[in-house]
Amino acid sequence: MTKHIDDLKVVENKLLTNDFCVIELKSENKLPVLSPGQFVQVKVEGSPETFLRRPISIHDVDYSGNRFKLLIQVLGKGTEMLYKLRVDDYLNVIYPLGNSFSIPEKKDRVLLIGGGTGIAPLLFLGKRLKENGLNPEFLLGFRNRSRVILIEEFSNIGKVHLTTEDGSYGEKGYVTHHSLLTSDSIDKIYCCGPDAMMHSVADYCRSKGIFCEVSLENLMACGFGICLCCIVNTTRGNLCTCTEGPVFNIKELKW
Amino acid sequence: MVNLGINIGDLSFKNPILTASGTCGYGPELDDFFDVSRLGGIVIKGTTLEPREGNAYPRMAETPSGMLNAVGLQNKGIDYFESHIYPVIRGYDTNIIVNVNGNTIDDYVALSKRIDKLDKIPAIELNISCPNVKQGGMIFGTNLDSARAVTKAVRSAYSKKLIVKLSPNVTNIVDFARVVEEEGADSISLINTLLGMSVDIERMKPSLSTITGGLSGPAIKPVALSMVWQVAKAVKIPIIGMGGIMTASDAIEFFLAGASAVQVGTATFIDPVAPVKILDGIERYLTLKGFSDIRELIGYLNRNPIK
Predict the structure, then answer these.
(1) Which side of chain B, N or C, has fewer Cβ within a 10 Å radius?
(2) Which residues, other chains included, contact B15 with Cβ-Cβ below 8 Å and sequence gap of 6+?
């Protein structure tokens, strides 16, 4: 797989809340093949505190327009500067990086579980699954009603189940408390979200013997396998999240 | 055309740009971005006799103009290197240098002997300066007697070019440079990372699992440069400078201060093509300044009285 370093043009920066935005980038050239679960490393200019690139999941892809989207949550100086990007700004990007989610068989009932910025790759994955003849469903967790984002986009692909921690929207509690998980039989689960969420989803899947892949967000310096900083402890030893992941089958993870 | 070639003894480098150990993998990791054979050399990741898993996550923390790492020499060991990596990289048309590590002097010697037999590895970089391992590493590089003993032992066991990588975490780096030169080192590389620390105030814990780690990046460049300058005045063997080199201008400062070659490290994490950009930039600078040979630049400050 060839990796590219490109200056991509910001064609849209849609502010969803005061700390979430969706940035759409356009390439002058034909987009390389991008797969759900893969990420890009973006360079944030302008401050000594944003020395390293920021790894961001690919959220949505439009091959016909040579465009793709990134969902950004403001968590620090780097993401704050990304939030402030304007149309016609350029962003230096290394991409595509990492592996991707596996594509299940058509007969499988598939649930995509996410929370926070972790919902980003699930939109891309959901679209890909639908193109492959599946009917993916989503289970998304948010803190409260005011934090709920992108429901329309997800609803266009499949049924959306919701939880909020305070019960202000959807079922009350965490995603693993949702009635869907006690009542229905799911064949495969794909999860991306905060560590605590992925751990509890992994525990649930282990207890039920359900196939599960998670996408990790470990801290990294390079994004292409030379710094060895983003490691996760697996049955194959310490592996780089950036090259061997970010998607791992939970069977491999020593959580 | 300018001549960019330099030498360490009778070992020729087509140009003075190398990648630093731990920042270029084994080489193929950079194939997607540029042809590593364009460089004068690559110093591949820290290798030990046995496979190592390194330190626990988190191993990295971003700091202003730099980063801390605590990888702890994760590598697949010399057996795997010989059987799986060496056959793949031996075809590179550049000097492949292995960064050598161990817990004991015997480890360093045994590993150096193994690498001595690999015909496409013309040099080793003796790492006596890794701050992220409990045994070996910096313990050898911060005690003069130990630095002398390990250099002497490896020198007598290894027949090709011996580069010793020094730690900046000492009172006077010049003393260490003199000791390794006396014991037969062919070249000195400096500096390894500076011991550093960062605290996560939200979690109220150290940012790194090891508490302290090694600081690299532009934050350490002035420190590295002053050490290269001091060491260059004190020894006769060629110096390979490193520490926060991000651009050709940074590299040129090191040549002027006395380095015969430089290693590009942390810069490659952010811009994987940084090593070749730096190479091209140096060539442009030489042309612009009317120099025909990189050697006119090397140690310029030492040859020309500073008023």
Answers:
(1) C
(2) B4, B5, B6, B38, B39, B40, B279, B282, B294
Q: Which of B23, B36, B62, B207 to mutate to probe the A interface, most A CBs <10 Å?
A: B62
CB contact under 8 A, A51 and B33: no
Q: Which CATH architecture has domain A4-97?
A: Beta Barrel (2.40)
- Candidate list B130, B220, B246, B282, residue with the active-site label: B130
Confidence of residue B135 (pLDDT cuts 50, 70, 90): confident
Nearest to B74 among A218, A224, A228 (CB): A228
Q: Is A96 helix (H, G, I), strand (E, B) or coil?
A: strand
Its CATH architecture, for the domain A110-215, is 3-Layer(aba) Sandwich (3.40)
**pTM for the whole structure:** 0.96
Q: Cβ separation of A53 and B74 shorter than 8 Å?
A: no
| ipTM of the predicted assembly exceeds 0.90 | yes
Dump pLDDT digits (tens) for B221-271. 999 999 999 999 999 999 999 999 999 999 999 999 999 999 999 999 999
Which CATH entry fits the domain spanning B6-303: 3.40.50.300, 2.60.200.40, 3.20.20.70, 3.30.479.30? 3.20.20.70
